[in-house]
Design brief:
With about 230 residues, the protein is of the alpha/beta class. The protein is about 35% helix and about 15% strand.
Length: about 230
C-alpha cells in the first residue's frame, strides 16, 4: 500500500516522464549534388588506380563524399562472390548518401563484376549509369594464361560461364544507361572488339594501352560527360 509520501513521489515521476522531450528521429542524409559514383577496379589492382579520374571529377565539381572506390579480392568468382559484395557496398553508399541510384565506373575485370550485379544481382534498380573502361565484356584470350589456377581468370576467358550468361539475351538490360570506352591497342583485352556492347554508347579512345585509359584526360572527359548527360 502506498503512503501519501510514496503516492506524491509516484505522481511526480509520472509527470516527469510525460513531460520529457521525445528523442529526435535521425535526420535523413541530405541529397548530394551529383549521383554518387562507385568505382570498381580491375584484376590485380586496387582502389588507388582511380586517383586520376577521381581528381578529374573533383575538378568538375564532384565532392569527395560523392566518390566511392569498391575494394575487393580480384581472385574470387564474379557470380558466386564478388557481385554480391558489390551489391552490399552499393546499398551502403545509397544509405549513406540518401541517393536512390548510383553511377558505376569500372575498369577491366571490374566490368564483369559490375555487369553481373546489374543484370543478375538487383543492380538494375540501383544503378543509373554504368561505364566500362577496357572491360573484357565478351572475354579475353589473354586470361587463358592464368585460368588454370585462378577463378577470376577463368571467368574472363571467352565462352566462360560468366561471359556466356552476360551475353545471353539483352547485353544492356533495364533502364540503366551503358557506356564503354575501348582502345584498338589494348594488350590485355583480345580481341579489342570484346569491349563494346550492343545497346551501349561505345567510344573508341585511340591507341592506348590497357591501363592508360585510367589516366587519359580525353577518356576522363568522356566519362564525365556521360555521367552528366
Amino acid at each position: 500500500m502506498l503512503t501519501p509520501r510514496h503516492s506524491t513521489a509516484a505522481v511526480a515521476a509520472l509527470c516527469a516522464a510525460l513531460l520529457a522531450p521525445v528523442p529526435a528521429r535521425a535526420a535523413a542524409p541530405a541529397p548530394t549534388a551529383h549521383r554518387p559514383v562507385v568505382f570498381v577496379h580491375g584484376y590485380n589492382a586496387g582502389p588507388g588506380v582511380w586517383g586520376p579520374l577521381r581528381a578529374h571529377l573533383q575538378a568538375a565539381g564532384y565532392a569527395d563524399s560523392e566518390l566511392f572506390s569498391f575494394g575487393y579480392d580480384t581472385h574470387r568468382s564474379v557470380n558466386e562472390v564478388l557481385a554480391g559484395r558489390l551489391a552490399a557496398y552499393v546499398d551502403e553508399v545509397r544509405r549513406q548518401t540518401g541517393a536512390d541510384r548510383v553511377d558505376v565506373v569500372s575498369h577491366s575485370f571490374g566490368s564483369l563484376v559490375s555487369r553481373w550485379y546489374v543484370k543478375f544481382g538487383g543492380g538494375e534498380g540501383a544503378v543509373d549509369r554504368w561505364v566500362s573502361l577496357a572491360g573484357p565484356n565478351r572475354g579475353t584470350a589473354t586470361a587463358w594464361a592464368c585460368a588454370l589456377w585462378d577463378q577470376a581468370c577463368r571467368d574472363m576467358t571467352p565462352g566462360s560461364y560468366v561471359v556466356r550468361n552476360l551475353a545471353a539475351g539483352d547485353e544492356t538490360p533495364g533502364a540503366v544507361r551503358y557506356a564503354t570506352f575501348w582502345s584498338d591497342c589494348d594488350e590485355t583485352v583480345n580481341p579489342d572488339s570484346s569491349v563494346p556492347l550492343d545497346g551501349a554508347a561505345n567510344t573508341p579512345v585511340g591507341c592506348l594501352r590497357h591501363n592508360a585509359l585510367l589516366d587519359d584526360p580525353a577518356t576522363a572527359a568522356g566519362v564525365r560527360a556521360f555521367l552528366r548527360e
